[in-house]
Amino acid sequence: MEEIERRKQSARAWFESLRDRICAALEAIETESAFALDDPEGARAPARFQRKAWQREDGGGGVMGLLSEGRVFEKAGANVSTVFGTFSEAFAREIPGAAENPGFWASGISLVIHPRNPLVPPVHMNTRYVVTAKAWFGGGADLNPIYPQEEDTAAFHARLRRACDAHGADYYERFSAWCDKYFFNKHRSEPRGVGGIFYDYLDADWGPDFAFTRDVGLAFLDIYPQLVRRNKDRVYGEAERTHQLFRRGRYAEFNLVYDRGTRFGLMTGGNPDAVLMSLPPLASWPAPI
Amino acid sequence: MEEIERRKQSARAWFESLRDRICAALEAIETESAFALDDPEGARAPARFQRKAWQREDGGGGVMGLLSEGRVFEKAGANVSTVFGTFSEAFAREIPGAAENPGFWASGISLVIHPRNPLVPPVHMNTRYVVTAKAWFGGGADLNPIYPQEEDTAAFHARLRRACDAHGADYYERFSAWCDKYFFNKHRSEPRGVGGIFYDYLDADWGPDFAFTRDVGLAFLDIYPQLVRRNKDRVYGEAERTHQLFRRGRYAEFNLVYDRGTRFGLMTGGNPDAVLMSLPPLASWPAPI
Prior knowledge:
The structure is a homodimer. By secondary structure, chain A is of the alpha+beta class. The first copy, chain A, has a single domain, classed as oxygen-dependent coproporphyrinogen oxidase (3-Layer(aba) Sandwich), CATH 3.40.1500. Helices cover 42% and strands 26% of the residues of chain A. Chain A is built from eight helices and ten strands. In chain A, the strands form two sheets. The first copy, chain A, has a seven-stranded antiparallel beta sheet. Chain A has a two-stranded antiparallel ribbon with strand order 7-8. In chain A, a hairpin with a 7-residue loop joins strand 4 and strand 5 (123-131). In chain A, 46% of the residues are buried. The mean pLDDT of chain A is 94. Chains A and B meet through strand 1, strand 2, helix 6, helix 8 and strand 10 of A and strand 1, strand 2, helix 6, helix 8 and strand 10 of B.
């Protein structure tokens, strides 16, 4: 087997195993949570991820994973997709290496979590391996709290910094700045959340690049459940729920107008339900006056 | 005064007077509606439009008009904006006449109505006059029912056809086909609603083009209140409300990913609250599995 094929298979296998571990970690939190604040009788059962495979007409497909209406998580999506084919001419112009050869292969894990309690921060994590005439890793993780809390933000960043520092002295500085720049809602002139890291076109050296990408996933798996457990039983009321729905509207705006992964998915004929699993279960755009 | 200045002022004055008449028509429906089905005690007062002027840094501005949490209308936006300046280089490539001269002037009315009762169809109407090195009218109106009803769809189309037929033998055929093509959610492979008309770059002859644009507004003003009155007291339940929030999610998707007016507004530094008044007050993206 060609080396590049081995790399593709390794990357794909990693994304799938990481997905399984993250889903298990979130389900464990559901199981240990006796009830939700808005469901004091515990009528709502601990939720489980449901999976559904989908095929892409032009090559490949994925498995969409969704946990819905849980005690802790109102909606959580954990998708892995592995797609290949030929970029459309218009889209090829936006992708490195695609102008020479529009053939592509891409595999990745994509995760978005919308907790029920407005005091538990929503989060996004995605890592991917893309092969055109070039080949690279990309991804990152960023925290999108409804009510930013210094302690959570610091812990999230510190854990990602640890993953970065093990692989490149300038990684955290570069990738956290990239995250701040990328996850910025230009028309609202506001950041989407409190940052994290974002990287793309990482093609220095396959082995270390892959190891870094794995460590980003493991850092996420380590820190996010801690943030959930720290906040999930905190008391909230109607005002916090209302503000949560408002902030979720802003999150949906960013994803539909700017997000690169969403755009990649919609422009390459991905399954729209899988691509848009990131959208919040319920969101509001109240009249601004 | 130059002829083109007279035309700009006439167009702008029309859009403002049409806005006033539509707001009055919607407020009249609020007044005559004793209560909403979800508010049998009538605790909710008949709602009124609130207006707020905004200035655009690079020239012009507008008046955002919003009616919110009414008995019949959950959220209705009626904006007029008149903006001018210079297109960004990237955006100028998308606009006729802007490559030669990136200066522009644009005035228009934009209206989006999200009724509370899922059996009352949401609607969108917009007409505008744009001046670059060229000058043209554009706009249209389209119906976006949660539960399409043959009678409403037929009445809406018939009234717009009447406006079209008075101005061009092929207008209805061309502009209703354009509407179907334009208001199509490509990634979902589904139309946004049940159509109406859409036209753009209408620059045949100022007088008749302006008269047609006025008639489109008057047709809307005539037919939409009829559709509201026909349906506003029909009984609905939780299932219809749930489906309404789901369909509103699709509406938000279209506007944020594809809508030309939204894109124009966000890319030309318009007030984001005004540009995005079209977004629904509450929308859902339930897990698809």
